[in-house]
Design a protein that fits this description.
Glycerol-3-phosphate (1)-acyltransferase, alpha/beta, globular, 7 helices, 204 residues, single chain
Length: 204
Amino acid sequence: MFVTQDIVLRFFFKKKKILNNGFSIPINSSIILAPTHRSRWDGLVLTMAMGRRVTKKDCRFMVTKSEMRGIQGWFLKRLGCFSINQLSPSLSALRYAIDLIEKGEQLVVFPEGKINKYGKKLVLKEGLYRLARLATRKKESIFIIPIGIAYSKVSPKFRDECCISFGKPIAINDYLNFSIKEFNNLLNKKMTREEKIALKNVGR
C-alpha cells in the first residue's frame, strides 16, 4: 500500500479525482464493485478510492487466468487478485468468490472481461450477474456499484490525470427476475454514464 499509493500513484499522476456522489451502503450488506476497464492502472486507482485506507477493507479482484502468470501474476496476487477461467469457471473459484461476498469483503469484477482501451461498446460478460444471484442464497443484501474510470489520455502517461466516478448502488434483489441480457444492459448504461462523468473531469 505504501509503495503503490504513497509513491507510485502520488508521483505518476498529476491529479486524482474521486467522485462518490454521496452513495451509502446499508449496514451488513455486501458490495461488488463493477468498474470499466481501460488500463492496467485501474486496479491501483480503484484501491486508492475504495481500499483499506478508505473503507477498512481490501479490494479483492477477480481476474482472468492468463493475467496471473509470471511476474505480473506474482504482483497481482499480492494486490488481492485471484484468477478465474472465464470460459469454464471452476467450482472452487466460484465458492471462493461467494465466500468473499458472504463475509462482506469488497469483490471487484470487471464486467467487460478485459481491458477495453478505447471504450468501445461491448456486451458485458455473464459472470457478474450469475455470481451475484448465486451469492443471494448465502447473503441477503448485496449491492453492485457501477464505476467509471477515466484518464486524461487513452494510454496514461507520466503526470496525466485520472478520475473515478461511483454510481448509485444497485440492489441485486430488485433484479432477480431480470434475464442476464436485461441486467447487463442496465449495468452497461450505468457504467457508461459514470465513465462519461469521469471523462469530462479529465478533459476528454
